[in-house]
Design a protein that fits this description.
Strand order of the largest sheet of chain B: 6-7-8-3-9-10
CATH class of chain A: Mainly Alpha
Strand content of chain B: 35-45%
Largest sheet of chain B: 6 strands, mixed
Largest sheet of chain A: none
CATH topology of chain A: MetI-like fold
Order of helices and strands of chain B: EEEHEEEHHHEHEHEEHHEEEEEEEEEE
Oligomer: heterodimer
Shape of chain B: elongated
Chain lengths: 279, 347
């Protein structure tokens, strides 16, 4: 017999067990190994090593700069796209096609996609041939091994998150608010700025947080498109785990990146929260 | 009265559905006009055409002689109270009310002082710092009204503004709206499907049906002398007594064989339930009587409605107060009415 009390407990058990096994335990393992030595003694050595070394700060700066610029470009591209899909497209079939086109890149493997970009962005790749063909440049531009190349690869795959988050927010805004603003004598541009934009801020912020978190932690795309010229933080972590086999140091690097990312996401979340409370 | 708004042969379609057909209407400065009709009659469409949220295919709309038929809503000298209020959820009550003046480029201090004034007008001067969603429905309605009058428009459009309120609050707001309208001297166009509400607030009622204006007139004209059967039935309860031709310029009614003068084509004589009486003993000379049998008694305290069958006609009779106990199903009564209270209807 399953009583009314035990039924929800049973239903909750599987997801909670999954959460514990695959999220809590690995986190705890990483956190503990970041403050211990091979012998098991407590130490802060790994962290002092990271924080006192200028090289790590340089890599962190590159990592966060790439993530922030990626987020900014994704917003600049994703917001108008979302607006187009929600507000301008009248024909539902075409809207569906557009959404599928935007999501399709997410179905391909990260590695395959990055190799694809390597081919396209190479010296004799399609992009350079196209640029030279229309006369924008005489010599092939260098994309691989530059931040530009990494940005192209990241933006391409992260734009859909902004489009979906902002599109969803836009679709749920009651058009009556914009009618009311126009009725009060305010033109379309200022209505967008004072009414529409604040109302979809929570959706935009959650999209931006997703993009930022994914861009900070991205490994495959920067690793393949950097051509060994640029190092981001996730690459340092990967080196420690896979080449150096210093799991303690790698764990400390992971925790450092995680904490700094959470601080930035927390700040952004607060901005979104103030918007959400109002909306 | 000075002409403020003139609507000239305006038509509007949605696909193949004709929402407005050649609607022509004038509204004078300071008038309180109610657009009354069932849902789908085009009253909200007409309001949105005036507001600029819809553009009619044909016809012209002018305010103070300026044609604004295709002008965008933000270039029209009028404001709207929306049915769902549409208060900006991300702004405080005071910011909502100050939105119009502030965006119009009026200084911050001046805009807020006007907003506080408008809030005081609707009795919400202490609520400025609250968020709109933290207010009750009635308070939100007042904020929407304050936000719409703060710009001092010449014309205020109200789209079923009271429909979300409960009955008691609604009655109170009707009286308050009327006072505010008189105080500000702004012309109001008030959309409603509730005929009692229209009669309670408006100086003039425009009854609409199927995209057309059926009749426009004072509440008294619309109630006493409805132009069509639709108006008679939509505004109040009518008794429609069938009329058949009885010689040139005369019809015979299906009540006591009464013959009255009437124009050609008249098919009904309408009489309101309160103009039909029960006669005890001798009736006065100007009252026509007929025997009847009570079929139903509906008493709601202040008023009792009797359903009395007189031959082929079932008459509704309204009496003040509760009816005496002997007036019940099957009771034989004498029904009387004054021919002067009859109003002839063609269709």
């Amino acid at each position: 017999m399953i009583s009314a009390r035990t039924a929800p407990a049973l239903l909750l058990f599987a997801p909670l067990a999954f959460f514990a096994a695959f999220f809590l335990v690995p986190m705890a393992v990483v956190a503990i190994s970041s403050i211990t030595t091979d012998g098991g003694a407590l130490t802060a050595l790994h962290y002092t090593r990271i924080l006192l070394d200028q090289y790590h700060w340089d890599v962190l700066w590159v990592t966060f700069r790439i993530a922030l610029v990626t987020t900014a470009i994704c917003m600049l591209i994703g917001f108008p796209l979302a607006w187009y899909l929600v507000r301008i497209v009248r024909w539902r079939a075409w809207r569906r096609v557009c959404v599928i086109l935007i999501i399709v890149p997410l179905f391909t493997s990260n590695i395959v996609r990055s190799f694809g970009w390597m081919v396209l962005l190479g010296r004799t790749g399609l992009v350079n041939q196209g640029l030279m063909g229309i006369g924008l440049t005489d010599r092939p531009m260098r994309f691989l091994g530059t931040e530009t190349g990494i940005l192209i690869g990241l933006v391409y795959i992260l734009v859909p998150f902004v489009v979906l988050a902002v599109g969803n927010a836009l679709a749920t805004i009651d058009r009556g608010y914009e009618d009311a603003s126009a009725d009060l004598g305010v033109g379309p541009a200022r209505t967008f700025w004072f009414v529409t934009l604040p109302l979809c801020l929570p959706g935009a912020v959650s999209g931006a947080i997703m993009v930022f978190a994914l861009a900070v932690s991205a490994y495959v795309t920067p690793a393949l498109l950097s051509g060994g010229q640029i190092t981001v933080f996730s690459m340092l972590i990967f080196q420690q785990y896979s080449s150096v086999f210093d799991f303690h140091y790698g764990a400390a690097l992971s925790v450092t990146l995680l904490v700094l990312t959470l601080v930035l996401v927390g700040i952004a979340g607060r901005i979104g929260e103030s918007g959400r409370r109002a909306a | 009265m000075q002409l403020l708004l003139s609507i000239d042969a305006v038509s509007k379609c949605f696909g193949t559905y004709q929402a407005l057909r050649d609607v022509t209407l004038s509204v004078g400065a300071g008038e309180f006009v109610a657009l009354l009709g069932p849902s789908g009659c085009g009253k909200t469409t007409l309001l949105r055409c005036i507001a600029g949220l819809l553009i009619p295919e044909r016809g012209a709309i002018r305010i103070d002689g300026d044609e604004i038929t295709a002008a965008p809503p933000y270039r029209r000298p009028l404001n709207t109270v929306f049915q769902n209020y549409a208060l900006f959820p991300h702004m405080s009550v005071l910011d909502n009310v100050a939105y119009g003046p502030r965006r119009a480029g009026i200084g911050r201090a001046e805009a807020y002082s006007r907003a506080r004034e408008a809030l005081a007008l609707v009795g919400l001067e202490d609520m400025g710092a609250r968020m709109p969603l933290a207010l009750s429905g009635g308070q939100q309605q007042r904020v929407a009204l304050a936000r719409a009058v703060v710009n001092k428009p010449k014309l205020l459009l109200l789209d079923e503004p009271l429909s979300a309120l409960d009955l008691k609050l609604r009655r109170r707001m009707q009286i308050e709206l009327k006072h505010i309208q008189e105080k500000l001297g702004i012309a109001f166009i008030f959309v409603t499907h509730d005929q009692e509400e229209a009669m309670a607030v408006a100086n003039r009622i425009v009854v609409m049906n199927a995209g057309r204006i059926e009749q426009a007139g004072t509440p008294g004209e619309v109630y006493r002398a409805p132009a069509t059967r639709f108006v008679a039935e939509f505004v109040g309860e009518p008794n429609l007594i069938p009329a058949s031709p009885a010689g040139p310029g005369r019809v015979r009614l299906a009540f006591a064989g009464l013959e009255v003068p009437a124009a050609d084509g008249v098919r009904y004589a309408m009489v309101r339930p309160e103009d039909v009486v029960l006669v005890d003993g001798q009736a006065s000379a100007d009252v026509v009587t007929a025997p009847g049998v009570v079929e139903d008694v509906v008493a709601i305290g202040a008023m009792t409605t009797l359903f009395v069958r007189c031959g082929d006609v079932l008459l509704k009779i309204a009496r003040l107060g509760m009816a005496p106990a002997d007036l019940r199903h099957g009771a034989a009564v004498t029904v009387g009415l004054r021919p002067a209270a009859l109003h002839m209807i063609a269709e």
